[in-house]
Amino acid sequence: MVIHVVGAGIAGSAAALALHGVGAEVVVHEAHPDTSTDAGAFLTLAENGMRALQAIGADEAVRRASAPLRTMHVADGTGAELASRPLGEPGGPGFRYLTRARMCAVLQDEVRRRGIPLRHGERLVATAPDEDGISAAFADGARARGDLLIGADGLRSIVRTQLDPGAAPPRYVGSQIFYGATPGTPPDVPTDRFHFVRGGVAFGYIATEREGTWWFARVIGPELDPDELATGGWAAHLGDLLADEPFPRAIVRAADRVLVTNAYDLANVRVWHRERAVIIGDAAHAASPATGQGASMALEDAVALAEAIRDAEGIGAALTAYEEHRRGPVEANTAASARM
Ligand SMILES: Cc1cc2nc3c(=O)[nH]c(=O)nc-3n(C[C@H](O)[C@H](O)[C@H](O)COP(=O)(O)OP(=O)(O)OC[C@H]3O[C@@H](n4cnc5c(N)ncnc54)[C@H](O)[C@@H]3O)c2cc1C
Question: Can you give the pTM of this predicted structure?
Answer without folding.
Answer: 0.95
